[in-house]
Amino acid sequence: MMYEYKDINELLDIARNINEGNYDVASVAVNTENELFHIAQYFSESIDKLRTVFETVEDSYEDLPGFEEILQTIISDSKTASENVLASIDNVNFITDDIRENLATLKTQAESGNFSQTGGIIDRLRDKALSGQDTSFDIIAALEFQDITKQKIDKLVKIIYDLQERLAHLVVMYGVKDDKVDVEILDKMKDKENVLEDQSLVDELMKEFGQ
What's the predicted TM-score (pTM) here? Predict the structure, then answer.
């Protein structure tokens, strides 16, 4: 009788800890001759699974702020680059109109034989051409953000794969979609250095999850 009360109290303490979100509790150890032994076994297995869930969610939660920060940076960089490119295009249009007007003036002066004015017009055309070249370089510079952005996007994709791997292991552990999830594919994902380059692995994984 003493064992029974001791075991019940221990189960109650563990249930209370689980209810409070404290999964880091000692494994349940109940007298094997007691009727509560099988219940204790289920408790012990549940605690192990809940601890795994807790660790997975905790790690994933820590990754999400970084994910959001990187995503906001990408959005900001893309917005700035787009604005710079649009401003440069406006400048190119302005230069083009200016060149067209100077060419028309040059033609008029040449046809009237007033060659004393043509030299100044040609100089202005040369300056406009150089200005157009500088604007082209500005557009190229504005688009250089793509290389850095690609690295940031790759980092986001790795975070997603990391989360997907953790969740997939939970799916396997709890037997959800056990007819679709291939553990071998999950093992392949442990080497995430080349996962972005292996499109067949990505397609295979998405297929396993029924996407």
Answer: 0.47
